[in-house]
Amino acid sequence: MFDSPLSASAYEVLGVEPAATAEEIKRAFRLRLRQTHPDAGGDASAFIQVQRAWELIGTPEARTAYDRGHGLGAASTTTTGAEQSWSGWRAPAPRTDTRPKARAYGHPGGWRRERYLALIREWAGVGVDVPDPYDPALVRSAPLEVRRLLADALAEEATAGTVSDLGMGFTVWHDVATSADPLLSGDADKLDHVILSPSGLYGVMSEDFAEVVRFRRGEIIGPGIAGRAPVATLLARMRVIARAAKVRFGGAIIVLPDDDLDQAVTSLGKVRGTPVVVVRRSALSMVLRQGVPGVRDIGGNELFDVRTRLQQTIRFV
Predict the structure, then answer these.
(1) How open is the CA angle 52-16-261, to the nearest 5 degrees?
(2) Domain containing residue 45: CATH number
(3) Which pLDDT tens digit goes with each residue over 230-256?
């Protein structure tokens, strides 16, 4: 929950400054525990965040490691070699893996990465050199919409990694271009992922709202969603691809970080005639293998025909 560019830092969760003393952090931790404890009318998810924050900065050793990895305090200026570990805001180094992978086309998160890099440099100032646009301190100080671009790019890359590990029976297209979409003004006209599997054909959106979401009338709601309509947007973009390729999607999937959902899989039922599920990132593999309830399996010649139609039609942003 603390590795997202959108999430509060451990210090912010406890309500202290990064320069706070150990005793100040301890007092703040005890106060926040009392304030968020469910038995005292507090919020359970906030209570868990407080405990996690204490684990990260409650001891000198843990705090030093946390500060180093998140660009906080003096420790961040002295990291070298192995200490400069991946903080979760860069793409991880490629893994050596000889297992068969899913067929994959396009660049997951590529559009949002490019927009993030352009905007972070623009925000830093015209002509200002940004040696490391993913420096944790820089990212945390950037405007929300800039950080959101990076968070969503990371979400798309995480989904791509999960699908890749499912094997050759799966085919995925990333950053698929669609026509103009008035439902999400200012965003790319794209569908994050189109996934073809023996369990069905799915349109997939990867998001990071940095909060536990709720649902109402077939849509995702919450303060961090800021008036957007993720389900309606996903379905609209799927229809563009379906018409162009003359295929029929079986279902729609929205993938969120595990901390954003109270349960692994939430079915929204049929929305505009299409089964929709919202899943934790850790549950995506299971859902794609088993299939979304109500979605017809695809096999044999039909699987080959659908793949061919999509391959001939899909363009990338």
Answers:
(1) 35
(2) 1.10.287.110
(3) 999 999 999 999 999 999 999 999 999
